[in-house]
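Write out the 3D structure for:
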Amino acid sequence: MDYNEKIEIAEVCPRDGWQNHPVPIDTQTKIELIKKMIDCGPKRVEVTSFVNPKAVPQMADNAKVVEGVMDYANEKGVTLVGLALNGRGVDNARAAGLTYVSFGVSVSEEHNLRNSNKTIEASFEDFRKLMDRAQGMKVLLALPCTFGSPFGDSIDLDRVLRMCEEAKSMGVEEFGLADTAGISNPRHTREVLRYLKEGGMDFSKVSIHLHDTRGMGLANAWIALEEGITHFDASLGGMGGCPFVPGAKGNIATEDFVNMVTQMGMKTDYDLDATMKLAIEMSEKIQANLSSSMSHLCKKQ
């Protein structure tokens, strides 16, 4: 591991952090908070998702949110990303003005059925068709449950490799590996990453998305750093969860992860003090209980 390596951290709170929040967040508050998140330093923000609003009502204002932050993000040189699960979602993301989408195909059969009501193969077939509709857009293939399924079904890592290879042949350059349920442990995380690397996966094109359900998010992030990963997702305040995974906790907290890597001498684009203060401000504005250690520390200072 190179301690001089710069660590890229994408802020996913506006999508993954808020999607499960039980208190409705009004559009203007979302826009104001996302702009402040941008001021904290990320170069990429997962700003919303283009999914059925009946399934995820918190994301029903996706186009309005994108419209409200697009100019500011462009001014600051920040890339906005929208999550899509089907072709309609990609079309809606394009119509909203986005040029970058994350398309999710879970590698857990049971999770994919609950998430999209389709088998993995059916979802990947959607992905093949989507690539024709996504001409001119950048696409990241997100792979939920890479590190294990909360429903007990086994994860075929060879299938993960095959899916990535086919996606590469269609022009996809970036991939996201997720511990969606937060059930991995450091030993298992290392085993999965080494298997995928030995199978030919280029980690310079891979980001890691770690939920902290069992309190091992930062430990798993440390292993990913040791194995050569430099791109991570994180959520302000540790907010988040998956509507289709009962009990799932949020991603590793942005401020906790920034603190960890900077304490070790690594560099990020984040202002840690501003990030901690914003986490507290956000919790007050949207009535959220934060799980991050650094935000609680900041409250006591």
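The longest strand covers residues 44-50.
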